[in-house]
Amino acid sequence: MKKNVLVVAALLLALFNSACGRKGPLREPVPMVPQAVSDFRVVQRGESLIFTWTEPASYLDGTPLGGSFPEIRFMELKDEGISGKKGLDSFMKYSRPLAELSLGKPEVVTNRAVVRLDLEKVTGKNYLFGLRTRGRKGGWSEISNLVSVRPEVLPLPPSGLRAEVEEHQISLSWEPPEIGLDGRPLTERVFYNLYREEAGVFRLLNDQPLTRTRFEDLNFSFGLTYRYLARSLVARGGEYRESADSEILEVKAVDVFPPATPAEVRALSGTDGVTISWLPNRESDLAGYRVYRAKEVAAGEGAAVLLTPENLDVPVFLDGSVEKNTGYVYSICAVDKFGNESPPARVKVKT
């Protein structure tokens, strides 16, 4: 028994020594840098370049980033451009921070930056832009996708944006631009985009560039306030280029449109009084009906009295407070939820 215990102990010792002597492959530490941005975008809008991107969520090792600091870099291209790994290396070697473009300090907010152009200096030149970020710890990320932009002279924005609130639409119109940013008359066709603010963001309303200086917004609700802006467009190089924003127009959609007059009103005198009925209205904002009554007198009609302090929900009413052998004139009006009252439908009856 003692011999067996010694054998087992010897085997365990051998295994322990073997494990202690084994060495696995060394792992290189993951650099403490953010993931690279992959959706960097640059567009010219009027006299400005607009930069947008999605902020990386984490470092390369998966640690949450918790905010980042962006750096936009640029270089001027003298030929067709650069691409591939060598292109990225060349960009990092020859590019400079955007602030060195001598166009003023970029205005940077979350995932967006704007820089105003001096068109006399940059028009016709081809620039390449990229972006990198760094977190509160560690170094810079790899450079993002690269975007080339050749600044151009674009039209001025539309002017005189105005609106008319109608029963089923908000009709918007504006004046076309006559000159470009350089002050010269426009010689190319101008199109338009119209935007409406939703949840703090201006979203495009039209599916295709507009060819006329008006637009009908059918998707709206009375009682709300809307904000609109328009931009001019020109087609160049197979794509549309936008102007700066027009002035923002604020429109309060007030319902001043009454329902239709109730149709086919009938009055029938009976032992319980006078029963009045009519066809129901079809308006989506209908709040109900009001019934007025006036007595027929020698001089014509007396003053009309409202018989329904609360709006009726159904198109029928029994007036049980009539006098015998008396002529009455009833006026039936439809009312919407904004208090607009239709012209009356009138019917006469004698008890």
TrEMBL record:
Residues 157-256, 258-351 form the Fibronectin type-III domain. InterPro entries: FN3_dom, FN3_sf, Ig-like_fold. CDD domains: FN3 (cd00063). Keywords: Signal. Residues 1-19 form the signal peptide. This is Fibronectin type III domain protein. It comes from Candidatus Saccharicenans subterraneus. The lineage of its organism: Bacteria, Candidatus Aminicenantota, Candidatus Aminicenantia, Candidatus Aminicenantales, Candidatus Saccharicenantaceae.
